[in-house]
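Thread: Modeling a multi-component assembly for a lab meeting

Hi all, long-time lurker, first post. My supervisor asked me to bring a structural picture of a complex we are working on to next week's group meeting, and I have zero experience with this. I have the sequence lines for every component (707 residues in total). Could someone generate the structure of the whole assembly? Inputs are pasted exactly as I received them:
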Amino acid sequence: MASIELAGISRSFGDVKAVADLSVSVADGEFLVLLGPSGAGKTTTLRLIAGLERPDAGRIRMDGRDITDSLPASRDCAFVFQQYSLYPHLSVFDNLAFPLRSPLRRSEPAEVKRRVEEVAAMLHIEGKLARRATELSGGEMQRVAIGRALVRRPRVFLMDEPLSSLDAQLREELRVELRRLQRSTGATVIYVTHDHVEATTMADRIGILERGVLQQVGTPLEVYGDPHTLPVAQRLGSPAINVLPAEWFDGRAPVGTTHVAIRPEDVRLSPDGEAPGFQVIECSLVKHQLVAERQGVEVHARVMLDEPLAPGSQARFGFPAEHCLFFDAAGRRIGMP
Amino acid sequence: MAEIRIEKLHKRFSDFVAVRDSTLTLEDGRFVVLLGPSGCGKTTTLRMLAGLEFPTSGSITLAGQDVTYLRPRERDIAMVFQLFALYPHLGVRGNLEFPLRNEGLKRAEIDRRVADAASILRIEHLLGSRVGGLSGGDRQRVALGRAIVRQPQAFLMDEPLGTLDAEFRELMCVELRKLHERLKTTTVFVTHDQNEAMALADHIVVMNQGEILQADEPGAIYNFPSCMFVARFIGRPPMNFVPIAGAVRAGDASVSLAGAMVDVPRIEADAATAVLGVRPEHVSVGVEGGGMPAEVRHVEYFGSHWVADLATAAGVLKAVIDKAQRPVPGDRVVIGFHTDRLVLFDTASEQLLPSATTRLHLEAKRHGQH
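Re: Modeling a multi-component assembly
Sure thing. I ran the full set together rather than chain by chain. Output:
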């Protein structure tokens, strides 16, 4: 496995700056998630690392060696895409063996068999090796696609939304499994997604990309708990962080505050008669979620209730100061270095 | 607006019983969700309400009128399929007028109804627009508008949000619920998605294999699932089932989980074998004190909270843990349970065992109805 360093990488397509002056280091054996909406530059970043795109500026290093000008094949990165592209006419075994039989690598048949069976066992598809790829379920196909990257033992894994096309339950299963595999093999993974749950549950560190610019990099706890900008705060968490008008915090917010943000789980349901009243819109016991509105502003609270509150009824919310995040007009967190 | 009554409704397709002896009253003005896995009979029930299928036996009454064998057009009900389908060649106004064109209404009445619907949905400013350029949310509002201009006695909706992506689906749930608050038209909504059901419903009807397993308010379905199927179907992560050592007897107020005694609401029936049902969010985790010893096996961080797998002598339990607690695999912890949130099931029948809390709930429910 290998470390990766991006230093000041930029890439434009016509007038669009897909990636702008991006710098980040990924340690050997680290799982880095690049999180952002579509068009943020996530996939372009992966393609630059793989050598499928050339940067307009900046350098890429692998284990300290400059690979900016090397061919894709010599970089030894394995790509896993959202759409599993298996060979439909081949069996699962042959799909998994394919990368080992390429002219560049050509391994001994006994070695191919050993590696394929080892990877199939890791992914719990050892019973399906004789099947045609087309006879598999969606989840199994994606396992094979991941397996095909694993058998090669590449130096770096590049994964582009590998779970996005699967249903919720499979996604949950594979999420846990991928992370377990990565830990046990010590693989370096750069994983692209727009799903914040994948980001917080899988990543060692998360890098948040917005319009080609890397906004913040940190552990899930850091990025979730201590966002430097409002877009970063809004990128993680479901329901999204509440953004409240500064007027509601008259005298309690620092000078220059235009928006006050607070996580739904930090909003307190307060019996206090002094707390502002909100009209309940939605209350879900299963999601532990209460949505209520005041002056046209919707507030989401994560609450554990014994009985749901009826839509239309009143709820009183408290916003404890220690959990409030204050942002200025430019969306920068006030009080950050 | 109207109450809908279903009496011993039965529907067979040759050998297959799609709906089995269902009896149900849908109160006037309620938002009722039929919830269950595919093949449970929820869509067949809805289609019989709409008149798209006739039952093998049983009856349906709408506002006191027997409509069991009336054709769809003869019942005052609007069926909403995929909310997204709009006529691209018609503008917003054209799309809203479309359902009224064949109803023989006067021009002034059509204009009034379109204006009403547009105002309810706050899309007055879009009436002159083409549908092509609309945002997803506005398209959905226009599609909803097309159902409400008819001013039917009831709406029937068959997985209307099924094709939308997750984020948009949540927005539309809020939108639909707001609309219902304004109109209070009896609505029957079919879905297999428990989140939608919990977000929308006044009343949830859980179905499986053609049978109604439980019909109740969302809170009651969550707190007092009638059987293990309902308990498993509602709630993510799903409810933990922990085997109880030995038989349970009426009057017991504690049970043994692999040797650890756990307080439960007083049990009011005997069972040879039983399981304890405990939701992950009702497991509390501490570092000391009484309770079941456990080891943290695996954690997932969700930002707002953690979900941990806890290995105990009675098996692995999932727990939802406060974000401030920061559990780490390998941690030795002590588990407690929120006693009054625990439920028990008879292992043989998989049915909820009556207890002090379930009895209180049933009494309150009966009281509320009279």
